[in-house]
Amino acid sequence: MTMSVETQKETLGFQTEVKQLLHLMIHSLYSNKEIFLRELISNASDAADKLRFEALARPELLEGGADLKIRISFDKDARTITLEDNGIGMSREDVITHLGTIAKSGTADFLKNLSGDQKKDSHLIGQFGVGFYSAFIVADQVDVYSRRAGMPASEGVHWSSRGEGEFEVATVDKPERGTRIVLHLKAEESEFADGWRLRNVIKKYSDHIALPIELPKEHHGEEKDEPVEPEWETVNRASALWTRPRAEVKDEEYQEFYKHVAHDFENPLAWSHNKVEGKLEYTSLLYVPGRAPFDLYHREAPRGLKLYVQRVFIMDQADEFLPLYLRFIKGVVDSNDLSLNVSREILQKDPVIDSMKSALTKRVLDMLEKLAKDKPDDYKTFWKAFGQVLKEGPAEDFANKEKIAGLLRFASTTDASGEQSVSLGDYIGRMKDGQDKIYYLTGESHAQVKNSPHLEVFRKKGIEVLLLTDRIDEWLMSYLTEFDGKSFVDVARGDLDLGKLDTEEDKKAQEQVAKAKEGLVERLKQVLGEQVAEVRVSHRLTDSPAILAIGEQDLGLQMRQILEASGQKVPESKPIFEINPEHPLIEKLDAEPDEDRFGDLTHILFDQAALAAGDSLKDPAAYVQRLNKLLVEMSA
Q: Phi then psi for 451, rounded to 5 degrees?
């Protein structure tokens, strides 16, 4: 095809991140090279969707041609593949932005994670979704000709690059809107310039694309001397996958459609395809990914489902259909009850959306329940990727609090590995006779909590305790007060009451000891003064001499650190100092006549209890001096 003279030609450099990606692409990162075609078809399909949507408000953008399609041709001798769409197209500015930079949050994280191990890196690239650049897996030069719908023919643009440090952009005449990509294949990739090969790849990866993908019809028999205009034939099914009955859709088709929607290279862990009829009419196809995107914790990052109305694409990332704690879910929702000119503002106010959101949320939670029950290993993968996000749920979604709680996983004292694998259902199933509470302990790390003195009485009695070490856990437990009728108890908080797990004899003995140690408690109060809210005899300890407990209404250490880190004022609170009356150190302390020495020993015990709780000391130098003084006395 002849192109007109190029003007305004300039050479520009790729963004550093793109250079690094291209280097990986060009050095054949993927063992599965044929995915380049899937990625380019996926982009062309998105371009057609965008044109359809913009043409709702501006029909003139269709320029008289509403018949949207993708055409793929090839030239064996020239070793080229040409992929052409008549979608929205790109302006010069669009081309420079989309084909020269990656404007995506998490780019730096992504590049930091590249290890140089090709197999691992290809997974990361897939997760990042760099569709267009995959052309350089098979091509040593790529030319893109594009014109945005609605712009004059004289404002076409030609982008060209050999995938090295730079690209060229020039203005050209392009009478037809849309984008044409010409791949100049590497010598060793010439197998792709073949109708049969292309047809197979399209059927395998892109059958679900709702747009006709056309190849030139192959004529067998006599060859014509004169070049003839090719006849085109559609090689894909060209119907929206979610509109087909579930029984007709194979697992492989669902998986390929997920890769198209999510721009992921790996299969999803689960999916749910559902058609709702009655008062509301809509179809949803929802997927649980197997890995987290880099921008999962950027709460402002784009998220949401692809929204269609009566099979017409309306918007990407429609985030009104699922709550924020399910922001990792990918998929499509196609409604018959919304108007074609629906906007984000209208979505936020439409009561139909509230009903759909409620139903879709329940559908996702049901899908996760099923995954946990039927495929525990896959659920483990899901939990590692998205567990912390799901923990935002109880605070955000009161109506589904119990359902979400059932999906949470925790580490516990029954498993030394520290893996978060225990569900609340598992915990309740293992409860002791007479136990009516779910016990837990929060802390900075698994090593710190599993060795905490707070667990001593629980070990002695063989009672399981959940160990919570994620930054979000203490905040989560402020919303999660009970599950299945059993209330949660923080074992480091308040006055520990084991209820029926303590016998009458235990309770009587505790009262007698507390009475016997009243004098010691008073002496300790005198020494510690304003540092503590209270001093008392502990029922939690078996091996340690002393411990710090948190007041029932006070903030725990995790929450205090989160507030401090965010620059917020932390409310004043003092710990409760508890002593183990049967410990030899406490007996020695009780018998110590020298008040100065008694004071030093008390401060050392208090500071040690703070360290065991994971806290930092207010005056570390004083602690070291007292300890050294004691060591000198002992060695004298």
A: -100, 10
With CA atoms as reference, report the closest residue to 84 among 134, 140, 175, 145: 145
- Residue matched to tokens 């949507």: 53
94 and 153 housed in the same domain:
yes
Longest dimension (CA), the chain: 116
Least confident of 251-265, 379-393, 419-433: 251-265
What range defines the domain where residue 342 resides? 242-380
Q: Which residue has the higher pLDDT, 449 or 333?
A: 333
Burial 321-357 (b: 16+ CB within 10 A, else e): bbbebbbbbbbbbbbebbeeebeeeebeebeebeebb
**Do 74 and 121 belong together in one domain?**
yes
> What CATH number should be reported for the domain holding residue 438?
3.40.50.11260
The total number of structural domains that make up the chain: 4
Closest to 315 measured CA to CA, from 344, 352, 288, 281 = 344
Distance CA 577, CA 453 (A): 13
Which H or E element spans position 83? Answer: strand 80-85
**Lowest-pLDDT range, 145-159, 175-189, 321-335, 448-462?**
448-462
**Are 136 and 75 part of one and the same domain?**
yes
Q: Does residue 293 sit in the same domain as residue 309?
A: yes
108 and 253 fall within a common domain: no
pLDDT, tens digit (0-9, with 9 covering 90-100), for 240-291: 899 999 999 999 999 999 988 887 878 999 999 999 988 889 999 999 999 8
pLDDT digits (tens, 9 = 90+) for 297-314: 666 666 889 888 887 778
Determine, yes or no, domain membership for 343: yes
Beta-sheet strand order (sheet of 576-579): 534-537, 576-579, 546-549
Check whether residue 64 and residue 207 sit in a common domain.
yes
Mean pLDDT of 609-623: 81
Closest CA to 597 of 522, 516, 513, 523: 523
331 Rama class: left (phi>0) / alpha (psi -120 to 50) / beta: left
The torsion defined by the Cα of 76, 78, 79 and 82, in degrees rounded to 10, comes to: -90
Q: Across residues 208-215, what is the average pLDDT?
A: 90
Q: What is the SS3 assignment for 272?
A: strand
Q: What is the CATH number of the domain that holds 333?
A: 3.30.230.80
Model confidence, pTM: 0.76
Of 462, 479, 498, which residue sits at a domain end? Answer: 498
Last residue of a domain, one of 332, 347, 380: 380
Judging by beta carbons within 10 Å of its beta carbon (0-12, 13-18, 19+), is residue 415 exposed, middle or buried? Answer: middle
pLDDT value for 399 = 93
For the beta carbon of residue 534, count every other beta carbon within 10 angstroms: 15
- Residue 282 near residue 333, CB atoms below 8 Å: yes
Look at residue 348 and tell me whether its pLDDT is greater than 80. Answer: no
Stretch among 169-178, 556-565, 568-577 having the lowest mean pLDDT: 556-565
